[in-house]
Amino acid sequence: MSDESGDFTRDPLIRAYAAVLRGYRDEAKLSRAKLAEALGCSPQWIEKVETGQKPPSEETSDDLDTYFKTPGRTFHLIWQEIKREGKHLALPPGFPAFVKREAEASVMQIFAPWSCTACSRRPRTPPRS
Question: Where does the record place the HTH cro/C1-type domain (predicted)?
Answer without folding.
Answer: 21-75
